[in-house]
Amino acid sequence: MTVGAIVADRSFVDTVKVFPINLEIQTMRTYTMTSGRAPASRTGAATLSLNTSVVLLPEEPMQPRYADERVGYFSNRITEFSDELMGQLIRFVSSHEVGHTLGLRHNMIASQATPVEKLRDKAWVEQHGHTSSIMDYARFNYVAQLEDMHYKDLLVRVKKIRERYESGK
User: Fold this and answer.
1) Alpha-carbon distance 125 to 37, whole Å?
2) Whole-model pTM?
3) Confidence band of 88 (pLDDT split at 50, 70, 90)
4) Distance of alpha carbon 106 from alpha carbon 103, whole angstroms
5) Strand, helix or coil for residue 77
6) Mode of pairing for the β-strands spanning 22-35 and 2-6
7) By three-state DSSP, how is residue 142 classified?
8) Which pLDDT does position 27 carry in this prediction?
9) Rounded to the nearest 5 degrees, what angle is found at the Cα of 62, between the Cα atoms of 58 and 68?
10) 8 Å CB contact between 1 and 41
11) β-pair partners for 2
């Protein structure tokens, strides 16, 4: 698919929402399309609904994340997951992909259906899961903390990496 230039007379700002620390801008944008298998290439144009978030940066600048082997970011190392956790991940991803074969699209809005405080409630997560839709991209419960006992193997590994980084080893 080859996307070309924006078509100005068929593009516009739909809504602008102003909040204390951010702006949410919804636009409808039409672009020319000259080739590809997408149906839009036959009409010569594709119209997209896009959301742009503009967020105020904190007063104190954030620390840059350097490529430091002790941290584990930006590395090519392999992380060994327990068989149980790997099985859960494979079941989640394969169920998600089967959803696509059935014609389901991504459902990122499902993330907001679960109250944040419930993501730290072990009994609630065990009963309901950490996302309301398999079509969401919520593979991990990023809100869980070590003391919550969710994904303990992974969290213990992350804690050890952080401790090694902080100690300079």
Assistant:
1) 42
2) 0.40
3) confident
4) 10
5) coil
6) antiparallel
7) coil
8) 95
9) 165
10) yes
11) 35
